[in-house]
Amino acid sequence: MTPSSGPADRVIVDGKFFRLNGEKFPVKGLTYGPFAPNASGDSYPDLPRIDHDLALIRDLGANVLRLYEVPPRHFLDRAQTHGLKLLIDIPWPKHLCFLDTAAGRETGLRAVREAVTACRHHPAVFAYSVVNEIPADIVRWSGVRRITAYLDELIDEARSIDPDALYTFASFPPTEFLRPRNIDFLCFNVYLHHAHSYEIYLDRLQTIADSKPLMLGEFGIDSLRETEDRKCDILRWQIEGAFRNGLAGTVVFSFTDDWFRGGHQIEDWAFGLTTRDRKPKPSFAVVREAFHRAPRFPLPRTPRVSVVVASYNGARTLKACLDSLLHLHYPDYEVILVDDGSTDNTPAIAAGYDSLRYIRQDNCGLSVARNTGIVAATGEIVAFTDSDCRADEDWLHYLVGDLIRNDWSAVGGHNFLPPEDSPIAAAVMVSPGGPAHVMLTDRVAEHVPGCNMAFYKWALEEIGGFDPVFRKAGDDVDVCWRLQEHGCRIGFSPAGFVWHYRRSTIRAYLRQQGGYGEAEALLARKHPEYFNSFGGGVWRGRIYTAAKPGVLIQRPFIYHGAFATGFFQKLYSPEPAFALMFTTSLEYHVLITIPLAVLSASFPWLLPLAVTSLALSCGVCAIAAAQADLPPRQSRVWSRPLVALLFYLQPIVRGWARHKWRLSVPARPETTRERLDQITRADHGAALDSVVYWSPGTTDRLDLLKALLKRLDHEGWQNRTDSGWSPYDVEVSGSPWCRLRLLTASEELAGGKLNLRCRLRGHWSLLARLCFWSLFLLQSTAIALLASWQPWIWLILLDLPLLAWFFDHEKRTLQLLVLNLLDNLADELHLIRTETPPRAVLVPVAP
Amino acid sequence: MRFLRRYRYALLFLAVLVFCSVMVVRQFGLNQSRHLELREAFILLAVKQHPEEARVLYHRLLRNLERLPTRCLIDDYQRTIQLIDPASQASQDLVWKYHWQVSQELEKRAEGPLANALRLADQHPPDD
Fold first, then answer.
1. Helix-then-strand count for chain A, H and E
2. What's the pTM value of the predicted model, to 2 decimals?
3. Which residues of A touch B38 (CB under 8 A)?
4. Any B CB within 8 A of A798 CB
5. What CA–CA distance (Å, rounded) separates A57 from A52?
6. How would you label A268-287 residue by residue, b for 16+ Cβ within 10 Å and e otherwise?
7. Complex ipTM > 0.85
8. Residue B91's pLDDT band (cuts 50, 70, 90)
9. How many other CB atoms are found less than 10 A from the CB of residue A411?
């Protein structure tokens, strides 16, 4: 499989990078001009000077020139002859309030039209920038949405003339909030002279660029103000930093000090790598060296990496996966294919690769397969991808580079839809439930998707690898959360990406979502602190995925700085309307739409409500589909209706699987049954709300809690620990109907002795409360409607105290079990349970 | 206090039972008084020559007829017989028609007890 191909000699976008004739094309650029007009009125030198300049530029190792004036045809030809590509800025009066008048609007359109027509189909053209740095106050004056729409219109106009070229606009920090949809790559002019600020800002730009390539359109240093030595130093780390951070290219400002702007020659700035008479400065040699090393700057060290592919019946895409993995630009790695008992022709495909380590096992699930890979791995780092993924050739270079440069234990990256994937796969990609990464900052992740992640092997071994309970999915999230509980940090590498083939049929997609629902139920059981009472995820960061996690009903807001003078004017995206998405959930259908529909059979006046409820769900799905970012090339007439359908079906299928699993998995371990029989016989109805243990001082409150948590985890109790915000220490979920909250406090006694007080407060679970109050509501409605016909119907209320008794009985059972557990622990920790605790003695605290 | 706490659900059950019983009794009383109100309104309208309005209430009374307790039906029977001549064939008189419907319903309800009485009589033949 190869990336999408364009016409020969034209650069194309390939994930986060560019390609030219099948090879990666890292942009190593220089700005050129503008110069004082020559005899024919062009802002370009005469031909001999052009040839001399272009030869010097090639000697520098550059492959792109950025021009600020539309070049004449002969310049395009000369550039082609010298093997240079051109990024052409199209000048027009963007410093005026151009959207205020039809003429101003037309000026920009005409300029773009004429420029692209003049250079149309020329192989030297790399890309057009339809505008360079619109002043921030002009954007604020005309309105961000109007300017963004106008930029999209300019690109549409240009693309209709030269469809094979790439298009962008050159932005800069004061207008970083401009996000036109039609650009092919993000181009930013950034002048930051401090390495740390520069690195942080590149991280931010990578987050903004998301799945598009990021390129620095201008950066440079003035030799006069900063000195040439400092310029050399800054340019060195700027170029290296850009490529190490996975940028698709950089353009240095500028080739020469010869600069003509605003009708006169600039004399007091010297940004050039050569003097006005083209004599190379010391910075010329620095940039040449950096360009020759780019884009793959050597890593400080290259630890051995074991790439593990766990596959079960993944033959459809396995060959593409293995082909890509065996041609990575990384010096020391191995590829391990763990075949989890596939019944397709996976073994036959694997046999075609000599250098592949093939391990076959019985079908035990994804986590076991990955653990098998970890055991077999000989590398210091273990990277994981899936058989439905195809890795970029620099995947490991960037992943490992970012991992070893930071204090991370794990790293993950993007997964993009391959350009050759089907339109159905594209619709699946923008539908809910796809692999996502959740970011805490621009570089630190909360979790990363399993199809693109790498770990230090020691980190995986410390936490015991993947949990075998996750057979289909959820293992990646579980590992990330457990790593963070161990104090490890997870990073994100924006350039270390893989191509991920999505499910190609609706049936396969829904089956996958069912699997994710099961995984969610398992995760909610294992990590209840990450889920709310409805079973929905409570993410600490921001979710990044090809599908929007909800419909957007709020506009983004922008920080412009006082009087729109901020140097870094930021856009803050509002959270999607998660509440609206509830109307597409299984719970909504079951609790609201279906009851309304059923009742409307007897009470026809409820029918409009039932229809409205259904229409609301469908409407939300339709809006979500309308807002989906479908890739234009894989979009069809039926794509958005299909996305709307998937938005409707996915929550139902996933919710069904989630609830089915939640109900089928007992909240407390099976082993407690025997213990419960013994305790129940001994239960004399005494209060179980609190217990006190006397400690000789060797065991404190935290020791008891640690021992309790260890025991709960060991025995398989579902529990949630205090995250720092809770009014309790541990919440134990021993039944679907109740929760028990344990709160501890220690009282200091004379001689260093302690009273450890434990309070065990039981609560009905949300499910129990929902059941109780729903029943009450239902019965009240029935009484209100039917009591005049059947007065005996009042007696149905008698089931409420019975139900309450049942829930309370469950609560008491749980209290008994946990109390028994605490007593056992107390014995082990040599604590003595005291029925009447000794009086606490206040011990003065030393100042 | 401990007793209350220990048996709170049994006590709660009893409390709800008492409450429900009171509500059932109250509901019966309420239903009966509603019926009486409706019947008297119907009679008044019929007597005062408001046939259209009386017809509306007549149909409402008929709708509820099957659900009325027998005691209530007998009460209706006795009340309406004072206003009509049962021997006449005044098919246009709504009160007469209601009386006839009530008597039919009473006869229908008497079929079960009658059959039971006959069965009892068969089981106990007269002594010779």
1. 26, 32
2. 0.79
3. none
4. yes
5. 9
6. eebbbbbeeebebbebbebb
7. no
8. low
9. 29
